[in-house]
């Protein structure tokens, strides 16, 4: 018995030693992966580094994703020489404002970023600075300054996430050179990050805790942090990845370009970091991340540019370019090269955008039904519509970001052909006339956004989609204006309808049709010929046609005032994003908008946008192919002859005679798309914008039709049924 006990004890000790050795090996592998993934090696399998190198680096940055994108640039040896020559005896750089009080773009973080850059330089064999004693001395001195001064930002994010994330990476890569005292102080810096919060903030914090655990060689804590990170790779939560493949943070708010992009980039990094260990992400987790890119992000990137409607509050200089490229890097690295599905999705994303093809391969219509967001993609153009409701927050202002974005989710409608139509236009915009938006015309300062509360009281907001075409609708009830707005995304145009426009102010109400960079002449069709609009053109009539930058705009219906103008404007990035220095910029902007007058009672509009076309087609476009059946407070209904489709947004039960052989008796309000098919059949697609109903009922040619609607988290999603009508 005594011998048996000895054998058991020895076995336990051996097993414990084996586990400890295995854990030590895994920690070493993770640290090796850090170096493999972050220290520049010169490899560029997908050509993305070459694309990045062709883009002029930013001088002012606060977006963490963009900061990390810039950390991928090849070493700028001229800049490195300046870092080394200007470094002071106090351990600082003279061009950094260490007393900065900004909440965004906090300058002392640049000190941490330079430490990381020098650590990468020190470990890279690409330059003569590899293991340079001079660089090593500067790193130690710069660390000593940070450990001693202990800079603190007024914005908690920098203290708990931004700085530990940056310096933690440097600590891991420089670990062998850290003294015992430096290691102890490094751990203290990392202890500013604790487990907690939700969504991407939770992931960031857990990642920082994991780096501290690596410094402490604490495998159990590394595993706990890894599990905390992986716990966010799920769908259907209050925040994070939604069932419509959007990403929410700060409540029910679409955050593709902000927190969502950091989530994808971070998860891609962790998937490579844990590869070759027992902590690697499993197939299901990688499948969810791949689906988020494929079913979500691919739709909002056009020709290497992220849609403005996807940027959230981060309206930085060159943001569409940087964010799209950051996504491309993340997609190409997801799975650490060991996941076939990840590689397939990355290949598709890169094929769509790098280089941008003449003909877009991802064609269709997508409604993000949990996010009040619609994308319509054609071979040569893309349209984007962003709305808000009493369920969905449209925009936020925080830390000096997005100071003018009060109307960003009131139906903002962007049309992309080459993708550069709105690139860096933010300082030049009239923010009350964002394309697609109905708002007051006013020279007063922009109202500020009240964070975390729905900006629109309208409940009836949503979209129907059959995957190829769709209709979006929005009951606008916000900031003193009420209106019913609808968009038909069909074939080669976008039809925009507005009805029951009311206002509680004597200010003039406008609906903006377009406001983009000027690219060539703005033309107006008058008396059978195109005339150049040199400054400002105002006209009133039943039909007005305009052409600019290979796009046509036709307004028709009730006579109303249409204004078209091309003019040079000035503005400041600081007024939009306060992390920038207050410097003036200039540019030329083309704008087209409608004036509904002061205090409109039941204002209305109808106009069609014809993207990717020419002057001849705009002049010849036959409006009789678009039959606007009704456009009023009760219903917005259209019949398009070419594809024999009826589009209906019914705010209440209504009867409609569509054609001589199609009559509708709509009993359930909602958005309908009814398309004739061969053999006397119709495909009826329906979506409930209130997301409260279980069934939709109507009569088609006196035949009763019942549509059972998706439930649970799919409420608001399109349901379709095929009906025989003959």
Please, could you describe this protein's structure?
This protein has 726 residues and is α+β, with helices and mostly antiparallel strands. It is 30% helix and 28% strand. It folds into four domains: 1-36; 233-362, Glycosyltransferase; 366-621, Distorted Sandwich (Beta-galactosidase, Chain A, domain 5), CATH 2.70.98.10; 628-726, Chondroitinase Ac, Chain A, domain 3 (Sandwich). The N and C termini lie far apart (90 Å).
Report the structural category: alpha+beta
Q: What composes the largest sheet?
A: 12 strands, antiparallel
Strand content: 25-35%
Strand segment tally: 30
Are there runs of 5+ residues with pLDDT below 50, and where? none
Under CATH at level 1, the class of the largest domain stands as Mainly Beta
Gross morphology is globular
Radius of gyration: 28 Å
Distance between the termini: 90 Å
- Give the second-level CATH assignment, the architecture of the largest domain: Distorted Sandwich
What's the helical proportion of residues? 25-40%
CATH topology of the largest domain: Beta-galactosidase, Chain A, domain 5
Number of domains: 4
How many helices? The count is 15
Mean of residue pLDDT? 95
């Amino acid at each position: 018995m005594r011998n048996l006990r000895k054998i058991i004890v020895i076995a336990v000790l051996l097993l414990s030693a084996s586990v400890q050795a295995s854990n030590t090996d895994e920690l070493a592998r993770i640290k090796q992966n850090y170096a493999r993934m972050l220290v520049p090696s010169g490899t560029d399998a997908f050509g993305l580094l070459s694309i990045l190198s062709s883009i002029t680096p930013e001088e002012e940055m606060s977006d963490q994703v963009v900061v990390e994108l810039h950390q991928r640039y090849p070493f700028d040896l001229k800049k490195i020489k300046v870092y080394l020559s200007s470094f002071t005896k106090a351990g600082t750089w003279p061009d950094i404002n260490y007393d900065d009080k900004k909440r965004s773009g906090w300058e002392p973080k640049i000190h941490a970023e330079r430490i990381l850059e020098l650590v990468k330089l020190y470990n890279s064999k690409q330059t003569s600075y590899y293991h340079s004693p001079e660089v090593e001395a500067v790193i130690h001195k710069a660390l000593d300054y940070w450990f001693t001064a202990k800079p603190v930002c007024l914005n908690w994010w920098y203290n708990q996430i931004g700085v530990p994330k940056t310096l933690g990476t440097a600590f891991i890569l420089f670990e062998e050179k850290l003294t015992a005292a430096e290691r102890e102080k490094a751990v203290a810096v990392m202890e500013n990050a604790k487990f907690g919060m939700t969504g991407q903030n939770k992931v960031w914090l857990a990642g920082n805790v994991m780096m501290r655990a690596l410094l402490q060689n604490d495998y159990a804590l590394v595993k706990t942090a890894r599990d905390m990170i992986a716990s966010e790779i799920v769908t259907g939560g209050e925040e994070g990845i939604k069932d419509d493949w959007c990403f929410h943070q700060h409540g029910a708010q679409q955050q593709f370009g902000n927190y969502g992009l950091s989530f994808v980039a971070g998860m891609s990094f962790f998937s490579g970091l844990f590869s070759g260990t027992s902590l690697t992400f499993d197939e299901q987790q990688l499948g969810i991340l791949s689906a988020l890119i494929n079913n979500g992000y691919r739709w909002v990137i056009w020709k290497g540019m992220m849609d403005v409607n996807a940027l959230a509050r981060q309206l930085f200089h060159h943001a569409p370019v940087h964010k799209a490229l950051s996504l491309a890097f993340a997609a190409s690295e997801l799975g650490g090269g060991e996941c076939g599905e990840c590689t397939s999705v990355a290949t598709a994303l890169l094929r769509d955008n790098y280089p941008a093809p003449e003909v877009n391969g991802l064609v269709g219509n997508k409604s993000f039904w949990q996010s009040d967001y619609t994308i319509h993609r054609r071979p040569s153009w893309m349209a984007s519509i962003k709305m808000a409701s009493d369920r969905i927050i449209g925009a936020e202002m925080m830390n000096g970001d997005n100071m003018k974005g009060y109307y960003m989710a009131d139906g903002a409608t962007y049309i992309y052909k080459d993708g550069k139509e709105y690139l860096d236009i933010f300082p030049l915009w009239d923010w009350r006339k964002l394309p697609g938006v109905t708002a007051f015309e006013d020279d007063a300062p922009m109202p500020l956004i009240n964070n975390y509360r729905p900006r629109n009281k309208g409940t009836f907001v949503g979209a129907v989609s059959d995957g190829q075409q769709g209709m979006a609708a929005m009951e606008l009830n916000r900031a003193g204006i009420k209106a019913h707005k609808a968009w038909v995304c069909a074939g080669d145009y976008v039809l925009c309808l507005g009805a029951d426009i009311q206002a509680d102010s004597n200010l003039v109400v406008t609906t903006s049709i377009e406001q983009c960079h000027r690219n060539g002449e703005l033309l107006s069709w008058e008396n059978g010929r195109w005339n150049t609009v040199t400054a400002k053109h105002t006209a009133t009539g039943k039909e007005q046609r305009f052409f600019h930058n290979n796009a046509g705009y036709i307004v028709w219906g009730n006579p109303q005032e249409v204004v078209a103008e091309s003019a040079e404007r000035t503005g400041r990035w600081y007024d939009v994003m306060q992390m920038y220095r207050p410097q003036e910029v200039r540019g030329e902007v083309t704008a087209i908008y409608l004036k509904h007058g002061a205090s409109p009672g039941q204002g209305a509009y109808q106009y069609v946008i014809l993207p990717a076309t020419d002057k001849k087609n705009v002049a010849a476009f036959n409006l009789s192919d678009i039959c606007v059946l009704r456009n009023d407070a009760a219903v917005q209904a259209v019949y398009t002859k070419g594809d024999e489709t009826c589009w209906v947004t019914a705010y209440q039960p209504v009867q409609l005679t569509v054609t001589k052989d199609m009559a509708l008796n709509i009993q359930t309000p909602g958005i309908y798309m009814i398309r004739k098919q061969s053999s006397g059949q119709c495909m009826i697609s329906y979506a409930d914008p209130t997301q409260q109903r279980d069934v939709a009922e109507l009569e088609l040619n006196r035949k009763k039709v019942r549509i059972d609607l998706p439930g649970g988290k799919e409420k608001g999603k399109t349901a379709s049924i095929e009906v025989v009508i003959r």
